[in-house]
Design brief:
Helices cover about 40% and strands about 0% of the residues. It is mainly alpha-helical and about 55 residues long. The chain has one domain.
């Protein structure tokens, strides 16, 4: 891939936390929390695909 995410500066959360801790010489503790995801738009093709998936 020519323009991969890592080439443009993307880091995983784990890598970013390690960089932060190393730079600031602090121990960073993040809470694990999955935020609720609210759908505001439904697309015809995707909606039928999700409905089929939910019936499996």
């Amino acid at each position: 891939m020519k323009n991969s995410y890592t080439e443009i500066g993307y880091k995983t959360v784990e890598e970013a936390v390690k960089d932060f801790e190393k730079h600031f010489k602090l121990d960073l503790k993040l809470r694990f929390r999955i935020l609720p995801l609210e759908f505001t738009h439904y697309f015809e093709g995707l909606t039928t695909w999700v409905e089929k998936l939910m019936t499996l």
